[in-house]
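TICKET: design request
STATUS: open
ATTACHED STRUCTURE:
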């Protein structure tokens, strides 16, 4: 037997001894013990001094106090998950002087603490108290945790935060207060947490942010305010070092034009699921590092042509599920490296000439869910599609809404010859009252079913036909050249519109 396997066998023999691995527990190494049993009513007392990590899952323990841990333990990590703990006494951790990480998460009962519960944990750097039904926390409960870097209080029943709750946590870098019932926060609640890098207030009931609440958090990189009823923001709300700002699913109806102007380092800005109807033309000015902008699921009806000017680093712009009815031709003039452009589920009928010309050939575009008007105004778009159809996601779901004759047709099935501009004015079919309009006689029996006219507009000739009965139409264009020779250009046939039966409309 090799020395290596002999050493492994020796370790296994040692771990098997009852004084090393407690009952109802598993010892995967000399330093790590995992206990999991609903019949366990107290923590095991015969834990080896070599153990530094103790993890207890789904136990029946209801109380943690001074007798829960024997002397001489050298635990650096203690985790209690999905148990029945109701109370943690003031002296529960007084013997765990070397503890660096403490997690008590997912307990089924309302969990209460004493204000002195964590007072002996001077070396603690991580404290996770998630999903415990904690209704309140006393001021001073965290005052002894001078080395704490991460504090998570996610998914509890907190309704308020004492203004001095975090005042002694000078080294705090991550604070998670999400999924509580906090309705207000004081302007100075984070006053002494200048090293914060990540702060989450997601899914609370905060309707207003006090002026200057984040202004001194110069190292804050990620701020999550998602799912709050915030209806307005002041111009100086956010610190300049932010890299990620999430304002999704709030109640914002408008934004101050300069609110983001200092955010030169921001890479991700999420404003989706608000009630914005317009966007100031200079709202995103100076956001030179921005890579993703999400404006989806708002009420935006139009965008200024210069609103994205200077966003040279942008990779994704999400505008789906708004009320955009038109786009400015120069809207994307600075976006040469785009990877995603989502315009689906808006009110767009056409695309302006040259709109996509600056986009990279690898950009993925969403366009479905718009009422496209498939006439001469869509010729640029159809021509662009002929070379870039792979760029459009779900292209088979892009349909014509008008004109009626090709309503419901997939855009990819429409020929360029069908993109004819027509108006409803009956005079265009009479040829007598509109300039540059010539009535075209119909060969064969003229029963008034098909009336066509030729119209010249800005050097473009268009044939406009009015069909009074439910029938298909075959069109043949024959050109006469200057030398008198005739040349056939194309033949096209329009099928009878949907809803026809036996020559009549249903």
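STATUS: resolved
RESOLUTION: sequence designed for all positions
ATTACHED SEQUENCE:
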């Amino acid at each position: 037997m090799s020395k290596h396997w002999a050493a492994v066998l020796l370790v296994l023999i040692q771990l098997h001894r009852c004084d090393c691995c407690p009952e109802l527990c598993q010892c995967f190494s000399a330093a790590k013990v995992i206990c999991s049993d609903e019949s366990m009513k107290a923590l095991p007392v015969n834990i080896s001094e070599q153990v530094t990590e103790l993890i207890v899952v789904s136990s029946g323990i209801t109380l943690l106090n001074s007798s829960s841990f024997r002397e001489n333990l050298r635990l650096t990590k203690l985790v209690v998950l999905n148990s029945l703990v109701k109370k943690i006494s003031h002296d529960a951790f007084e013997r765990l002087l070397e503890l660096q990480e403490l997690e008590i998460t997912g307990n089924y009962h309302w969990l209460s603490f004493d204000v002195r519960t964590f007072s002996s944990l001077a070396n603690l750097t991580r404290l996770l108290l998630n999903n415990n039904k904690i209704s309140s926390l006393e001021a001073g409960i965290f005052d002894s945790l001078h080395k704490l870097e991460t504090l998570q209080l996610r998914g509890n029943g907190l309704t308020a935060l004492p203004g001095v709750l975090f005042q002694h946590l000078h080294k705090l870098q991550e604070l998670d207060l999400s999924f509580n019932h906090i309705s207000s926060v004081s302007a100075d609640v984070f006053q002494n947490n200048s090293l914060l890098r990540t702060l989450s207030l997601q899914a609370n009931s905060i309707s207003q942010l006090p002026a200057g609440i984040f202004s001194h958090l110069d190292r804050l990189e990620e701020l999550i305010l998602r799912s709050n009823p915030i209806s307005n923001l002041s111009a100086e709300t956010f610190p300049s070092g932010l890299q990620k700002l999430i304002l999704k699913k709030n109640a914002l109806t408008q934004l101050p034009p300069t609110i983001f102007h200092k955010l030169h380092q921001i890479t991700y800005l999420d404003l989706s699921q608000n009630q914005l109807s317009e966007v100031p033309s200079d709202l995103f000015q100076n956001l030179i590092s921005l890579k993703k902008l999400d404006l989806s699921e708002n009420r935006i009806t139009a965008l200024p042509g210069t609103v994205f000017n200077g966003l040279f680093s942008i990779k994704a712009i999400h505008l789906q599920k708004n009320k955009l009815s038109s786009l400015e031709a120069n809207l994307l003039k600075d976006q040469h490296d785009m990877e995603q452009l989502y315009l689906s589920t808006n009110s767009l009928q056409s695309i302006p000439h040259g709109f996509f010309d600056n986009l990279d050939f690898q950009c993925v575009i969403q366009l479905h869910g718009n009422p496209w008007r498939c006439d001469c105004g869509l010729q640029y778009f159809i021509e662009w599609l002929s070379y870039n159809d792979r760029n459009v996601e779900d292209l088979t779901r892009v349909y014509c809404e008008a004109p009626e004759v090709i309503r419901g047709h997939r855009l990819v099935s429409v020929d360029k010859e069908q993109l004819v501009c027509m108006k409803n004015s009956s005079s265009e079919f009479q040829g007598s009252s509109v300039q540059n309009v010539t009535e075209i006689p119909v060969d064969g029996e003229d029963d008034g079913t098909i009336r066509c006219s030729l119209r010249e507009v800005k050097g473009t000739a268009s044939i406009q036909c009015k069909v009074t009965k439910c029938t298909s139409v075959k069109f043949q264009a024959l050109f006469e050249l200057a030398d008198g020779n005739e040349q056939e250009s194309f033949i096209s046939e329009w099928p009878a519109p949907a809803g026809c039966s036996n020559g009549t409309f249903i």
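CLOSING REMARK: Residues 1-18, 424-435 have pLDDT under 50 and may be disordered. The longest strand covers residues 486-494.
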